[in-house]
Amino acid sequence: MSTSLTFVQGDITEQAVDAVVNAANSSLLGGGGVDGAIHRRGGPEILAECRALRDSRYGRGLPTGQAVATTAGRLPARWVIHTVGPVHSDSEDRSDLLASCYREALRVADELGARTVALPAISTGVYRWPVDDAARIAVETVRDADTAVEEVRFVLFDDRAYAAFAAQGD
């Protein structure tokens, strides 16, 4: 079975999907950008589960490139899959860490039984990953993934990100 890829410009917190992927920071305790929006809209249940994860399995935080799931709280999704993208570096190639975010998010989605997943442009905000390169890595990784997810919806916040990701879909 092949996974269909769609590209939409919009707000990831409004996506009615099985799982929304959060571009989290390693603390799992909320932040800016996508992370802040998901925590604000999803409500305190997400933060409570993130705190429990910190207390049990991730005392030092979620490592870059890994993923873990929580409830989606008040979001129109069942789960939030949190993944920590790498900070872009001009002196070190961290592309495999960025690709790992997408692979691990889909692996967790498969464990949950999620069939529809909304993905943001991981690491392209405050982590400064160039959006064209991030789009290439994300789309190639998702296309190559061995997953039971039926639809991956890339949800891009602005015109520039949407254009970069949609160009990869051609």
Automatic annotation (TrEMBL):
**UniProt key word Hydrolase:** yes
EC number annotated for this UniProt entry: 3.1.1.106
Q: Which InterPro entries match?
A: Macro_dom, Macro_dom-like
GO terms of molecular function: O-acetyl-ADP-ribose deacetylase activity
Q: Which Gene3D superfamilies match?
A: Leucine Aminopeptidase, subunit E, domain 1 (3.40.220.10)
**Macro domain location:** 1-170
Q: Name one Pfam family in it.
A: Macro
Q: Which UniProt keywords apply?
A: Hydrolase
Q: Which CDD domains match?
A: Macro_OAADPr_deacetylase
Name this protein carries in UniProt:
O-acetyl-ADP-ribose deacetylase
Q: Which organism is it from?
A: Streptomyces mooreae
